[in-house]
Amino acid sequence: MSPRPEIAGARRVVVKVGSSSLTSLPGGLDEPRLAALVDVLGAVHAQGREVVLVSSGAIAAGLTPLGVVGRPRDLATAQAAASVGQLRLVQTYADAFARHDVTVGQVLLTADDLTRRSHYRNAQRTLERLLTFGVLPIVNENDTVATEEIRFGDNDRLAALVAHVARADALLLFSDVDGVYDGDPRQGPAQLLDTVRDPADLGEVSLGTARRNGVGTGGMATKVEAALIAAQAGVPVVVTSAAQAAAALAGDQVGTRFAVMGPRPRARQFWLRFATRPRGRLHLDEGAVRAVRERGASLLPAGVTGVAGEFLADDPVELVGPDGVVVARGLVAYDAKELPPLLGRKTSELDPEYRRELVHRDEMVLVRRPSLG
C-alpha cells in the first residue's frame, strides 16, 4: 500500500509548478524540464485521474523575446512580458501534452475572479465543464491585466484557492525545493519535515528557504501558507520538487505532506474565509467576541466599539477583538458611514430600519489564522 494513500488515490488533483522549475535566466523557458513534467502528468491523465495544472512561467517566458534581462521591476514591463510569454508557455504545453493525446485549455484568473462571489462560481463551473470534456485546464494568474491591487501575489495561493474551486482531492506544490525544512539548509544542518498535521508542527521552521533564480515571486513562506489554506479546508497537500513529481503523485514518501486539518467547508464559507479581500474592520468588545466565537451568534451594534476602512453594504469585513486578533470575517449589512451612530447601542434603541444585524451569522465565518512559527 502507498505510504500516502490519500494522494495516490486522489481522483482529481491540482498541481502547481513554479517558474523556477520551468524557466532559467537568461534562457527563458526551459522546454526539456517542461516536457519532463508533462510526461509525468500525461501518465497520470492516462490512468483516468483528472489534473488541473496551475503553472507559473508566463512572465519569464516572455523576457527573452523582448530582450529583457532579469525580472521586470515595473508593472507595465511585467505585463508586456506576460502577454508575449503566456502564448509561448501555453503553446509549448499544448504541443507537449498533444504527444500524450491530451487536450489542454487555458484559464486565466485575476484575484477579482475569486473574490467576487459570482465570478467564483463561474470559475467553478468552467473548470468542472473542462474536466467533464476530458480537458486538462492550465490555470495562471492573468498577469497581463492584473494590477498590484488585485493580484494574488503568487501562484501558490492561487493553487490553494483553485484546489477548493475545482473540488480537488489533493494539491501538490512543485518547485526547485524538495520540501519544508525545520531550518535553512543553506545555513547548516536542517531536517526535512515529513508530515505537518497542525501549524504548531512547523515550530521554528525557516520560511525563507526557497532558492531564488531571479524569475519567481514566491518562496517557502508562500508554499506553507498555501498548504495550510488547503489543508484547513480539507485538501491534503504535498510540497516537494518538480523532480519528484512522479513519486509524489504516486503517494510515495517524498517532500512534506500537509495532512487534512479540518473538514471541507461549504463553498460559501471557504470563499468568505480565504478568497475575499476585507474592505474594513469592525472592532468588537469581549462580550461580542464570545457571542460570535462560542455561541455562533450574529454581530449586533451593541458589541462593536469601532469601525475602520471605507466599505459598502455587502462588502467583506474582518471582526477584530480587543487584542487585535481577527475573530471572524463576514459580509457587513451597512455602509461604513452609517455605522458610527449605531455603535454600542441596543437594537431596541435604534430606528426600525437599523434593527438588523451588522453581520448575520449566515454571512460570517470564524477565522483561525495559521501560525507560521
Task: Kindly list the characteristics that best describe this protein.
373 residues, alpha/beta, Carbamate kinase, eight-stranded mixed β-sheet, five-stranded mixed β-sheet
Description:
This protein has 373 residues and is an alpha/beta fold. It has 2 domains: 5-269, Carbamate kinase, CATH 3.40.1160; 278-366, PUA domain (Archaeosine Trna-guanine Transglycosylase, Chain: A, domain 4), CATH 2.30.130. It has 11 helices and 15 strands. The chain has helices spanning 5-8, 31-46, 58-66, 75-98, 111-115, 117-132, 155-165, 220-232, 245-249, 267-275, 286-295, and strands spanning 12-17, 23-24, 28-29, 50-55, 104-109, 136-141, 170-175, 195-196, 237-241, 256-258, 280-284, 304-309, 316-320, 326-331, 364-366. It has an 8-stranded mixed beta sheet with strand order 5-6-4-1-7-9-10-8, with helices on both faces. A 5-stranded mixed beta sheet has the order 12-11-13-14-15. Strands 2-3 form a two-stranded antiparallel sheet. A hairpin with a 5-residue loop joins strand 13 and strand 14. Helix 2 packs across helix 4 (75-98), helix 3 (58-66) crosses helix 4 and helix 7 packs parallel to helix 8 (220-232). Residues 147-152 and 206-217 have low confidence and may be disordered.
Layout: helices, strands, pairs:
Layout (H helix, E strand, L loop, with lengths): L4 H4 L3 E6 L5 E2 L3 E2 L1 H16 L3 E6 L2 H9 L8 H24 L5 E6 L1 H5 L1 H16 L3 E6 L13 H11 L4 E6 L19 E2 L23 H13 L4 E5 L3 H5 L6 E3 L8 H9 L4 E5 L1 H10 L8 E6 L6 E5 L5 E6 L32 E3 L7
Parallel strand pairs: 1-4, 1-7, 4-6, 5-6, 7-9, 8-10, 11-13
Antiparallel strand pairs: 2-3, 9-10, 11-12, 13-14, 14-15
Helix pairs in contact: 2-4, 3-4, 7-8
Protein name: Glutamate 5-kinase
InterPro entries: AceGlu_kinase-like_sf (IPR036393), Asp/Glu/Uridylate_kinase (IPR001048), G5K_ProB (IPR041739), Glu/AcGlu_kinase (IPR001057), Glu_5kinase (IPR011529), Glu_5kinase/COase_Synthase (IPR005715), Glutamate_5-kinase_CS (IPR019797), PUA (IPR002478)
GO biological process, one term: L-proline biosynthetic process
